Structures are given as structure tokens and as C-alpha cells.
């Protein structure tokens, strides 16, 4: 059985308020009784002061006057153990009792009072010394017990109603406030249940500056972290799936073979089959086949931990190889291809094979998008804190439905495409510390690659290694 947090907060408050109500009730009642007692003592003092001006035998008129003012009160005058005057009929036994009382000063009257029944009523009996009378004479005041009891009962009743009214209001306010807190906790509980069910949308109310709002913020932060982890898991799962798909191999293999085939076709068109005087196109085809072989081998081992030998090359050389490869392709497809590469680019591609494949992929896509008689422009120049490479074409640009996910794997609108080319481009650029993106400028589609400035020590090391690779090739 679940005990609601609301009741856990409300029960101690109810107990506390109830105790407070009883305390207030008894304190108020005691205060009222004290006030009533002081009023009675004041009556004793007033009567004794008035009687001090007359003899015991002359006191009846004054006593009748006070009895008219206090109808329920009665007074008896005792003179030398004899009843001298009385405002109420008394039996001989009761007269004897009153005649033998020890009189008290008016200031302490009522402190040692006792009850006496007379004429069907009960009275508090208070003997009082009257100033000016002899020692054998005193006044006996009979204060009605019923009046005192009703006064005390009324005081307790009024105090109780007031205390319980205040307590009821406090309990209602506490119930409303505890209900509000309980609902806030309930909403957080529902949010946690949604998270457990896989719904990671942030729903907890963070308003306020108390512990519950901090808990809500923590739950929302946990939901955001879980959402990030979920996306990471999905991305990891996609990467694992990429490693299992043979389509990636087909994509890169097709580009390389297509390039080699076009180069060989151009070689056949421009050369005399009988006498071959130039080997550049044949060499180009062989290099593309070599790159294709490397990419196929890399895709076959994708997702497996391994050490791969990187071949660093100057970026100028990488781009020159791309331009050299694209020239016969653009000529064959009747696309106007031009390049502007700053010869002073001070940047070394540590993984020259991946970088060359990436730029070649962008250029091949641009030639295909531009179409016959279209234009493709490759520029490379220093930029802010790095180097910027732009590849633009006069094509219509990517379709609207894939414009936001163009670099995601398996994003393509080509009937024969798989959608891994631009994903591998982003991977190669990202591994080099750069970034890649695209936009439309003046009716041209522009892919821009930014590569960061390299540290001087790393740059010198890469240059040395690049020279060593050239020497080994020679």
C-alpha cells in the first residue's frame, strides 16, 4: 500500500494544529476565568467599601442595591456569630455554618471559597472583613455557582470555536499547498515512467526554486543525456550496418573503374594503336585502379580494429592528382572543368588516399550534376585559420527532400546510387580536423571544405615523411 506524500506532509501538520487549537482554547478559557474572578473580587471590594460607612445593622439597603445590580448574588451580614442581615432565607444549620466562618480580607476574598446549597441553588461562599467593623462582624458573599459554570462553559465554547476555525483554515491551506506539491512530484513520476517507456521528451515542470524544481531539472537533464546516448547508439548501429553492407564497396569500386575505363577510352581515341608515344593516360588509369584497390580493402576491413599505414602528401599534390584525373573525364562528358589552386598551400594531407578520394568524389558528383556543356570550378586558397577548397557546379543542386541529410549515409536520389559517397567525404574531412558543407550561390551548387591550420612541428614532421615516401616510390 502506497502512502501518499501529500498525507505524509498533512498528518503531522494536522496533529500540530490540533494540539495548538487545544492549547489556545485552554489558554483563552483560563484567561476569561481569571477575568471573571477578578470581576468578582472587585465586587467584594466595592461592597465592603460601601458597608464600611454604616453599621452591620444598617447594611440591608446597601445590600439590596447590590443585589438589584447583581440579581443572582446574595449577601449575609454576621455580627458576633449572629446573622444580622440576609438577602436570602437560610436554615438554622446554614446560619450556624456562616456564623462560624473565619473572615478574610477583601483582597484575598474568594481564594478559599466553598460551595453551599440554599433555596435550590449552589453558591460560592466568601466571608469578607469589612473595614471599620469590629472583629466579630463580617460580610458573607454568596456568588452563584451556575452563573460561574455557565460563564466558564461559554468561554470554553467560544475559545474552541475560534481555535478550531483557525485550525480548519490552516489545514485547508496546508491541504491545498500539499496537493500542489504532490501533483508536481506526480508529474515528475509520470516523466520518469515516460523515460522508462522510451519517450525522452522533456515534460517535467522546472518552475520554482525548491528541491522539487531541482529534481525536475535533474530528470530533464537525464532525459536529454539519454536522448544523446540514444542517438549515439543509433549512429553506432548505423555504422555497424555500414560495415556489413557490400554496397559501399560497389560505390567506390564503380567510381574507380569508371574513371579508369574513361581514361583508357580516351587513350584509345587520341593514340595510334600501332604506335604509342604517351603513357600518361595509361598511368592515370593504373593509379585509379590502385586507389580503388586500397578503398576496397579498407571497406572490407571496416569496423575491425587495425593499424593502417597513412601516406602523407602535400595538399597541392593531392589536388593536382584530382585535376589530372578529372580533365579527361570532363572532356569526355563535355563538361567545362577549370581549377584555381594556390601553389603556396602549406598543408599536408596525412591520409592522402582518403583525401584524394574525397575530392575526387565531390568533383565526380559535380560533373554529373552539371551535365553536358555545364561548368565545374575547383578552387583552393588560404582562408581564416586554415585552407578553403570550393567545388562548384552549374547543376540544379540536391533535391529538397535530402538537402538536410545530404552527408548522412544512404542518402541519395540516384536510382543506382547507394548514398555512401558524401558520407565518406565527411569522414575523411572530419578525421583531418576540418568541416564540409554546401549551399546555393548565384544558381550554382557550392561544396566547401575547410581544413585547419597545422601546427609547425606536425607540419615539418609530415613534410619529412612525405619526402621519404616520394623517395621510396622512386
Structure explained in plain terms:
A 5-stranded antiparallel β-sheet has the order 2-1-5-4-3, with helices on both faces. Strands 7-9-10-12-11 form a 5-stranded mixed β-sheet. It is rod-shaped and about 165 Å long. It has 3 domains: 5-155, 2-Layer Sandwich (Beta-Lactamase); 211-302; 313-461, Heat Shock Protein 90. Helix 6 (247-270) runs antiparallel to helix 7 (280-300). It is built from 11 helices and 12 strands. With 474 residues, the chain is an alpha+beta fold. 55% of the residues lie in helices and 16% in strands. It has helices at residues 5-51, 60-69, 92-99, 145-196, 211-244, 247-270, 280-300, 315-333, 352-370, 421-431, 456-473, and strands at 74-79, 83-86, 114-118, 121-128, 137-144, 313-314, 336-341, 348-349, 375-383, 386-393, 435-441, 444-452. It catalyses: ATP + protein L-histidine = ADP + protein N-phospho-L-histidine. It holds the Pfam family HATPase_c. The chain crosses the membrane at residues 160-177. It is a multi-pass membrane protein. Keywords: ATP-binding, Cell membrane, Kinase, Membrane, Nucleotide-binding, Phosphoprotein, Transferase, Transmembrane, Transmembrane helix.
What are the SSEs and their pairings?
Layout: H1 5-51, H2 60-69, E1 74-79, E2 83-86, H3 92-99, E3 114-118, E4 121-128, E5 137-144, H4 145-196, H5 211-244, H6 247-270, H7 280-300, E6 313-314, H8 315-333, E7 336-341, E8 348-349, H9 352-370, E9 375-383, E10 386-393, H10 421-431, E11 435-441, E12 444-452, H11 456-473
Helix pairs in contact: 1-4, 4-5, 6-7, 6-8, 8-9, 9-10
Amino acid at each position: 500500500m502506497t502512502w501518499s506524500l501529500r498525507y505524509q506532509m498533512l498528518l503531522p501538520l494536522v496533529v500540530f494544529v490540533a494540539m495548538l487549537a487545544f492549547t489556545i482554547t485552554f489558554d483563552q478559557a483560563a484567561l476569561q476565568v481569571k477575568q471573571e474572578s477578578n470581576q468578582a473580587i472587585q465586587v467584594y471590594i466595592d461592597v465592603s467599601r460601601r458597608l464600611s460607612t454604616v453599621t452591620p445593622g444598617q447594611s440591608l439597603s446597601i445590600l439590596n442595591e447590590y443585589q438589584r445590580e447583581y440579581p443572582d448574588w446574595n449577601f449575609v451580614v454576621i455580627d458576633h456569630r449572629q446573622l444580622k442581615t440576609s438577602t436570602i432565607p437560610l436554615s438554622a444549620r446554614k446560619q450556624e455554618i456562616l456564623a462560624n466562618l473565619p473572615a478574610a480580607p477583601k483582597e484575598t476574598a474568594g481564594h478559599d471559597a466553598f460551595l453551599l446549597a440554599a433555596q435550590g441553588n449552589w453558591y460560592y461562599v466568601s466571608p469578607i472583613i469589612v473595614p471599620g467593623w469590629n472583629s466579630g462582624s463580617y460580610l458573607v458573599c454568596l456568588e452563584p455557582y451556575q452563573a460561574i459554570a455557565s460563564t466558564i462553559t461559554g468561554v470554553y465554547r467560544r475559545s474552541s470555536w475560534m481555535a478550531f476555525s483557525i485550525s480548519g483554515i490552516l489545514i485547508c491551506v496546508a491541504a491545498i499547498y500539499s496537493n500542489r506539491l504532490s501533483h508536481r512530484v506526480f508529474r515528475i513520476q509520470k516523466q520518469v515512467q515516460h523515460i522508462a517507456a522510451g519517450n525522452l521528451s522533456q515534460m517535467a515542470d522546472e518552475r520554482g526554486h525548491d528541491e522539487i524544481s531541482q529534481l525536475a531539472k535533474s530528470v530533464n537533464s537525464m532525459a536529454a543525456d539519454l536522448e544523446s546516448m540514444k542517438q549515439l547508439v543509433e549512429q553506432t548501429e548505423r555504422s555497424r550496418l555500414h560495415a556489413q553492407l557490400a554496397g559501399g564497396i560497389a560505390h567506390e569500386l564503380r567510381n574507380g573503374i569508371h574513371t579508369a575505363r574513361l581514361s583508357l577510352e580516351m587513350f584509345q581515341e587520341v593514340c595510334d594503336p600501332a604506335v604509342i608515344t604517351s603513357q600518361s593516360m595509361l598511368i592515370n588509369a593504373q593509379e585509379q585502379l590502385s586507389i580503388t584497390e586500397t578503398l576496397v580493402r579498407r571497406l572490407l576491413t571496416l569496423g575491425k580494429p587495425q593499424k593502417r599505414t597513412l601516406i602523407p602528401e602535400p595538399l597541392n599534390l593531392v589536388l593536382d592528382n584530382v585535376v589530372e584525373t578529372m580533365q579527361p573525364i570532363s572532356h569526355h562528358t563535355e563538361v567545362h572543368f577549370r581549377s584555381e589552386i594556390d601553389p603556396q598551400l602549406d598543408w599536408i594531407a596525412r591520409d592522402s588516399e582518403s583525401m584524394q578520394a574525397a575530392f575526387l568524389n565531390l568533383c565526380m558528383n559535380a560533373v554529373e550534376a552539371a551535365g553536358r556543356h555545364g561548368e565545374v570550378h575547383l578552387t583552393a586558397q588560404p582562408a581564416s585559420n586554415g585552407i578553403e577548397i570550393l567545388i562548384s557546379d552549374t547543376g540544379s543542386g540536391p533535391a529538397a527532400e535530402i538537402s538536410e541529410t545530404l552527408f548522412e549515409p544512404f542518402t541519395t536520389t540516384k536510382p543506382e546510387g547507394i548514398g555512401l559517397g558524401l558520407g565518406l567525404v565527411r569522414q575523411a574531412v572530419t578525421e583531418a580536423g576540418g568541416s564540409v558543407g554546401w549551399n546555393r550561390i548565384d544558381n550554382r551548387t557550392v561544396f566547401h571544405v575547410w581544413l585547419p591550420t597545422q601546427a609547425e612541428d606536425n607540419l615539418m614532421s609530415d613534410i619529412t615523411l612525405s619526402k621519404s615516401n616520394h623517395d621510396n616510390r622512386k
